[in-house]
Amino acid sequence: MMAAPVDLELKKAFSELQVKMIDTQQKVKLADLQIEQLGRVQKHTKLTQAEISTLPANTRLYEGVGRMFVLQSKEEIDDLLTDKQKTVDDKIKELEQKKVYLERSVKEAEDNIREMLLSRRAH
């Protein structure tokens, strides 16, 4: 008679873990895609900055704003690119931390179920 509630409890725990793992895997994949995309932005920004640094100081540079272009100084463009680079770096760090947290939470859930199974066997 005791076996039925235990089995239901384990079944419920396993189904919750499965849902959590699927959800977490999707979130990790999304984070990976975002990191990959931000990596491309980072590379593009570095290449643009490297190219601009070779230009003479009096070169006319334009920043794309929506569907128009605005004349900017070389320093302003460089500052914009530096800010963009910093923002991308911060977002990548944030996503990496989020991935670590998600993976840790799934591992904790797995460990809890293992403990539950071991305690059931001990009884």
Brief summary of the model shown:
The chain is mainly α. The protein has helices spanning 3-53, 74-122; strands spanning 61-65, 68-72. Helix 1 runs antiparallel to helix 2 (74-122).
Task: Describe the sheet with the most strands.
Answer: 2 strands, antiparallel
Order of helices and strands: HEEH
Overall outline:
rod-shaped
**Which structural class do the helices and strands define?**
mainly alpha
Amount of helix: over 70%
In quaternary terms, these chains amount to single chain
Gyration radius, rounded: 25 Å
Can you tell me the residue ranges where pLDDT is under 50 for at least 5 consecutive residues? none
What does this structure look like?
With 123 residues, this protein is mostly helical. Helices cover 81% and strands 8% of the residues. The protein has two helices and two strands. The chain has helices at residues 3-53, 74-122; strands at 61-65, 68-72. A hairpin with a 2-residue loop joins strand 1 (61-65) and strand 2 (68-72). The longest helix is centred in the first third of the chain and has 51 residues, at 3-53. The two termini are 14 Å apart.
Short key terms for the protein model shown above:
rod-shaped, single chain, Prefoldin subunit 1, mainly alpha, 123 residues, 2 helices
